[in-house]
Amino acid sequence: MIIERVTGEALRRHIPDLARLRIEIFRAWPYLYEGDEAYERKYLETYLRSSRSVVVLALDGERVVGASTALPLEDEADYVTAPFAARGLDIARFFYFGESVLDPAYRGRGIGVRFFEERESHARGFGTFEAACFCAVQRPDDHPAKPGDYVPLDAFWTRRGFAKDPSLVTHFAWRDLGETAETEKPMAFWFKRL
Ligand SMILES: CC(C)(COP(=O)(O)OP(=O)(O)OC[C@H]1O[C@@H](n2cnc3c(N)ncnc32)[C@H](O)[C@@H]1OP(=O)(O)O)[C@@H](O)C(=O)NCCC(=O)NCCS
Questions:
Q1: What is the tally of structural domains in the chain?
Q2: 147 falls within a domain
Q3: Ligand 1 atom nearest to CA at 136
Q4: Residue 85 lies in a domain
Q5: Residue 24 falls inside a structural domain
Q6: How deeply is 189 buried, as exposed, middle or buried, from its count of CB atoms within 10 A (0-12, 13-18, 19+)?
Q7: Which range of residues forms the domain containing residue 44?
Q8: Is 124 in the pocket of ligand 1 (CB under 6 A)?
Q9: Distance of CA 66 from the midpoint of ligand 1 (Å)
Q10: CB of 21 closer than 6 A to ligand 1?
């Protein structure tokens, strides 16, 4: 396995891999994302526009089996930055972690931990960011699609040094599996000092 950081224009050629992984992996609980190529193009364009974004790739030979993304919060869309602005927080101080997606066959060997280490190291490298943050979808506990054996990632994120601030919430809209229209999901933010 090779873990590789990709930045700048070099990101472009990996966009189809990222879209493919997001569509495959985010079908599962708690995302239930009904993959949408147009949504993916718009979402991933943000990473191409940002000069300080990073994608960490997990490669098995030539094949991309996992990826993890991050960029300065100020380069993110308004619906991500809005709760920070509403609270008077300076968005220039935060580095935003987008997602980690890994083929299930490659889980449990520390790649998820590396994804955090690589993104934190990338963010620290600029010397201007005080904290890393990400947001996670909040689904009702009694949701009919929730698998009985689901283990939430909260403990994993806590071990990475992040803490949830349930008072800082935004909403992302996407189309759930089997639905005809997009619906808004509450997304709660997690933080770690860099
Ligand atoms: C999140 C994700 C990338 C983690 O990948 P991973 O490479 O399996 O994670 P790691 O091997 O680094 O292990 C992470 C932790 O889970 C534990 N773990 C790994 N496999 C495990 C298993 N089969 N059973 C129990 N615990 C396990 C590890 O011990 C580690 O614990 P630690 O926090 O004490 O170090 C992966 O699970 C994934 O793609 N999930 C679906 C998408 C998702 O939810 N992404 C996150 C939000 S965008």
A1: 1
A2: no
A3: 47
A4: yes
A5: yes
A6: buried
A7: 2-142+152-193
A8: no
A9: 12
A10: no
Query: Phi and psi at residue 83, in whole multiples of 5°?
Result: -65, -30
Query: What CATH number did the domain enclosing 76 receive?
Result: 3.40.630.30
Is residue 122 a part of any domain in this protein?
A: yes
pLDDT of residue 90: 97
Ligand 1: residue of 113, 146, 159, 174 to mutate (most ligand atoms within 8 A of CB) is 113
pLDDT score for 9: 85
Task: Tell me the per-residue pLDDT of 46-67, one tens digit each, with 9 for 90 and over.
Answer: 999 999 999 999 999 999 999 9
The length of the chain in residues reads: 194
Tokens of 163: 């803490």
pLDDT tens digits for range 142-190: 999 999 999 999 999 999 999 999 999 999 999 999 999 999 999 999 9
- pTM metric for this prediction: 0.94
Q: Please compute the mean of the pLDDT values over residues 83-110 and round it to a whole number.
A: 96
Residue 36 has pLDDT above 90, yes or no: no
Looking at residue 39, its pLDDT comes to: 85
Q: Which of 112, 166, 177, 161 is nearest to 135 (CA)?
A: 166
Report whether residue 27 contacts ligand 1, using a CB cutoff of 6 Å. Answer: no
Contact between 115 and 154 under an 8 Å Cβ cutoff? The reply is no
